[in-house]
Design a protein that fits this description.
Layout: E1 2-4, E2 8-14, E3 17-25, H1 29-39, E4 46-53, E5 56-60, H2 70-79, E6 85-92, H3 99-117, E7 120-122, E8 126-133, H4 138-147, E9 151-158, E10 161-169, H5 170-183, E11 189-192
Antiparallel strand pairs: 1-7, 2-3, 3-6, 4-5, 4-6, 8-10, 8-11, 9-10
Length: about 190
């Protein structure tokens, strides 16, 4: 998966209309709302936006003719192979109508130039899992977690030992399970969390 490493902003003028585009990584629906509040300009004629978050997506034309703003922004995000990204394009009307084709080119072009200004980051899809071990295996468990670049989310102690909830790259899950099975002679269990 590819996403943006940080936010980006550009401003362009097309036939006296000023287009300001903001792009950023978003990882939740709450972050899309926060970013929109930050990027939208209440004094602008239109604040059009689109976002993609895994299999979910939304777009809005904010008063522009249907499918001339939000959908082209989303198409630009998808065309660049990005995920977890939101783009808000603000238009300050300059008095000259652009027409349907002109609006599509203006919004998709603004979004594209803004994304091109940002640094693209490859992100490994991650998953959560739980590791259950007796206390005697704690050293081997943490060594395996470090070897697989797992991030500890929480740990719980009980009479049976320790349960550690971690996040690991999906591509490293099998390696983690095999490593723990081999180093602990099958004494440690690893299961996916939903």
């Amino acid at each position: 998966m590819y996403t943006l490493a940080g936010p980006a902003t550009i401003e362009i003028e097309i036939k006296r209309s000023r287009f300001v585009a903001h792009a950023a990584r978003v990882d939740s629906l709450a972050e899309t709302l926060e970013f929109y509040e930050h990027a939208a300009d209440p004094s602008a004629t239109h604040n059009c936006w689109a976002w993609r978050l895994d299999h979910q997506y939304r777009f809005n034309d904010d008063g522009e003719p249907a499918s001339t703003a939000g959908k082209p922004i989303l198409s630009t995000i998808d065309g660049k192979g990005l995920d977890h990204v939101m783009v808000v394009v603000t238009r300050h009307y300059g008095g000259i109508k652009l027409g349907v084709g002109g609006l599509v080119r203006a919004y998709s072009g603004s979004a594209g130039q803004c994304i091109d200004q940002a640094r693209i980051l490859e992100v490994q899809p991650r998953m959560e899992c739980a590791v259950q071990a007796q206390f005697g295996w704690t050293g081997q468990v943490y060594a395996a977690l470090n070897a697989c670049n797992a991030r500890k989310l929480s740990e719980q102690y009980n009479d049976a030992g320790i349960e550690i909830h971690v996040e690991v790259a999906k591509s490293a899950f099998k390696k983690l399970r095999t490593l723990l099975r081999d180093t602990t002679r099958g004494e440690v269990t690893v299961r996916k969390r939903s």
